[in-house]
Known about the structure:
Largest sheet: none
Structural class: mainly alpha
Number of domains: 2
Distance between the termini: 54 Å
Amino acid sequence: MGASLQRQKEEKKHNLVQAAYELFLEKGTTKTSIDEIVRRANVAKGTFYLYFQDKNEIWDAVVARVSNHILLEAKEALEQRNLPDMIDRILFVADYVIEYFRKNILVLRMIRRDFSWPLVLKKMEQEQDNTLLQMLDQCFCSPYLSRYSMEESYRMMFIIMEMVGSISYTSILHDQPAPIDEMKPVLFHTIRKILL
């Protein structure tokens, strides 16, 4: 009984996040109401408030889910490559994220600049999923980063991923300050300088 009830709760929460994701893609965040989310998820409005305080909190859950999905895909693609150099691995992940957003413009528009490692880490901690930590460990087992603590290394990766998300948004959607193909070499050069 307990396991079944827990599964039902997880399914309701998943359905709410899925409904919010779909509506945010279709209509945008500001034009989507909580009433529409619960209707789409086929749950009572009170159920929404069992899991989320407000639309901002479900927004965080959507962004964490999207960010997590992209990073999981990047990790799987990275594992199929034989890239022994840590910087090449990080650049591969950065390029994967950029290309994902290039192919999924609606997702990029929806999450804006909010592609976020902290939200992913929080989600993974809540769900006891250590994929991102494994990914970070793979990057940090490099002589390049041996002079840094794990916390310092994490901060560098945070800066890198924030740059990737922000540049993806402005360059893919607005060609600012230049189209993404012109910005990638500059971004990758900057990433190398951060890591060396």
